[in-house]
Amino acid sequence: MPSPILVHLVGIANAQLYHTIEYLDGTFQPSFGNVNQQESNDPGPLTDVTCSWGLNQDLHVFAINDPNTGPSPSPMWYTVRNSDGSWQPSFTNLQQQIPNMPQQIMSITSCPDVTASQIIHVCAGMNTPGGLWYAYYNLNTRTWTTEAVTTSSFGVGIPERIDSVVDSNGSLHVFFSAAGFVKDNISAWHTSRSPQGQWQPGFDPIPPINTDSASVIYTLEAIRATLVNGPSLGIQLFGTTAIGELIVANPQINPWNAPFTDQATTGLTGTVFTDVAGTYLDAVTIPPSTVFRMCAVANGGQPGQLWYDNTTVDPLSFFPLADYVSMPPYPFSKIAIAGFHQ
């Protein structure tokens, strides 16, 4: 009998979805499985992916096509990996399930509600007309509810990179960046939704990136957020820059005034980071010293390699995931992670 699942990894390689698992005992599923081959329909080339832990150890996966080159309207695709390891028979086109979905989706994020285990929050960055779209999915009733994101005039670019997390009080936090867009030396932003469904009236700027490379302001190519286990339950922000640096901000609670800085790493030399995903895990079930997982897409000698860290020690200590998991014959472009939570 296999060890319980600790982490799901879902990535995009050759515009298709691939999936693998880290188990509680530290071992991995031997190879990445091609999710597209488990589905009866073809979603077309995929460009972004997000995943969330559901009920009974199932996994909920959302992916999109390129809004600039794919079909119009650009669908959001959805599938489920069941607790027995089987996949939903076909991808669901959520454009056909949810009213008033945006016509062009640039980026997507999903996260479970740690205070209401039956809820998954989904948020998308819209290519046209810009702004945020939001809905939540009730896992018990299998129904979607959409809400208007009642923020002030957008004016901060198109959310090309986006992530979200629910804090211990039940508030949803959405972080996004507009790649190539800088306003008042700011390229990343935050907004939030209360447990009662009220969106804050505007956007909080996230301070400029302080790097060792230069004094210029670099836009974020990826932005990620994860809840930090511990008494204060802050939110950890991290990401990658336009010049391929891995950056991190100290755990914090609004206001978001901790600037991003270079993240020290070991195990990597001459590496250009292109995407990253991380998660803190439920420390009740595993030793507290190993409650963090990070997976990065990085060009270190070859493009699209996956590097993994399973420690909480600074600096991060990455190792090539290919040492433990058989990889697809294509480089990865995106990675998403979902860690165990009760």
Description of the molecule:
The protein has 342 residues and is an all-beta fold. The chain has one domain: Neuraminidase (6 Propeller), CATH 2.120.10. Helix content is 0%, strand content 46%. The chain has no helices and 27 strands. The strands form 7 sheets. It has a 5-stranded mixed beta sheet, with no helix packed on it. The radius of gyration is 18 Å and the shape is globular. The protein starts with a strand and ends with a strand. The mean pLDDT is 82.
Biggest β-sheet: count, sense, barrel?
5 strands, mixed
CATH topology: Neuraminidase
In which range does the helix fraction lie?
under 10%
CATH architecture name: 6 Propeller
Please provide the ordered H/E string of secondary-structure elements.
EEEEEEEEEEEEEEEEEEEEEEEEEEE
Q: Termini distance?
A: 21 Å
Principal-axis shape = globular
Biggest β-sheet: strands ordered side by side in the sheet: 16-20-19-18-17
What is the CATH H-level superfamily?
A: TolB, C-terminal domain
Number of structural domains: 1
Secondary structure tally: strands: 27
